[in-house]
Design brief:
It contains 10 helices and 9 strands. By secondary structure, it is α/β, with parallel strands linked by helices. It has a 9-stranded mixed β-sheet, with helices on both faces. Helix content is 41%, strand content 18%. The two termini are 34 Å apart. The chain has one domain: Rossmann fold, CATH 3.40.50.
């Protein structure tokens, strides 16, 4: 693809489990990449990375999982789990007749990626795992999301008018990352509570023994000073996956606001995955110091 031509962007949807799931398609060709967002955050958060990967020749899908972004938001907690999110992502590959893709995501999206690799390893050309939430994050996740769940459960219906008012703010008046943040609170809070309930009552990722059997190439991105996404989880995961390398981000926002280094690393990894007989040599890359 010529780098001076803007990659095509198409917003679409399909139906899985009786619900409409929204996705955005960037670029063209057969080097497929599927990206997923963090918990309660729209897939819009991956748009800059998706555009950069499309400009480098990849064909990128950014999926809004059920209960997120532009996808349907049922109120039953049984609709939401890591397993069902992974099944929906595989259903998107089926919908588009995609045999293999490099699959990746951030936080929740990282855990869903691991579940996809467990359920359908033959469909995963490689994994991009940014900020996984595994065993070392358990206590911090309960502390962080427990009060949010309580607030949404007991106050969700009272908060609905506030969310409706925020939806009236024209998107064109808000900067890109402001819209990403507002999209979390613009949504109906009752389904958001159901998402959290469903995840609290299901396993959050494949177990360690299952992760050790995932032989596809993997790029793991972690950072320090974030108890919900501890660097120790990224390090342990890199040690478990047979064909992984670890990249240390300077902080949680580097890929969003200073993306050049990490975007180049991810684009290089995608190119490696789609090269013949792709094998990613394990290594650890330290963050650059100022």
């Amino acid at each position: 693809m010529r780098k001076d031509r803007q990659p095509p962007v198409v917003r679409s949807s399909f139906v899985a489990r009786g619900h409409r799931l929204a996705y955005t398609e960037f670029g063209e060709g057969k080097r497929w990449v599927l990206l997923m967002p963090g918990l309660l955050i729209p897939a819009l958060m991956q748009e800059h990375l998706a555009m950069a990967l499309a400009a480098s020749g990849a064909h990128v899908l950014a999926l809004d999982p059920l209960g997120h972004g532009r996808s349907d938001r049922p109120e039953g907690m049984s609709e939401y789990s890591i397993e069902s999110f992974a099944g929906d992502a595989i259903a998107l590959l089926d919908h588009l007749d995609i045999d293999e893709a490099v699959v990746g995501g951030t936080s929740l999206g990282a855990n869903v990626t691991l579940e996809i690799a467990r359920k359908a390893p033959q469909r995963v050309r490689g994994m991009i795992i940014e900020m996984p939430v595994l065993e070392n994050a358990l206590v911090a996740s309960v502390i962080a999301f427990g009060p949010l769940l309580v607030g949404l459960h007991f106050g969700g219906r009272l908060m609905r008018p506030v969310a409706a008012g925020l939806r009236r703010i024209p998107r064109r008046l808000v900067p890109f990352w402001g819209n990403v943040a507002l999209d979390v609170v613009r949504q109906d809070p009752v389904p958001s509570a159901a998402v959290l309930k469903g995840l609290f009552f299901s396993h959050v990722a494949p177990y360690s023994a299952q992760r050790r059997e995932m032989t596809m190439p993997a790029l793991v991105i972690g950072h320090h000073i974030d108890p919900v996404h501890p660097f120790s989880d990224a390090g342990v995961l890199t040690g478990e996956l047979p064909n992984a390398r670890l990249v240390e981000a300077s902080n949680i926002l580097e890929l969003r606001f200073r993306p050049e280094r990490l975007t180049a690393e991810i684009a290089g990894f995608v190119a490696e995955c789609w090269s013949p007989r792709a094998v990613v040599k394990p290594r650890r890359q330290r963050r650059r110091t100022a």
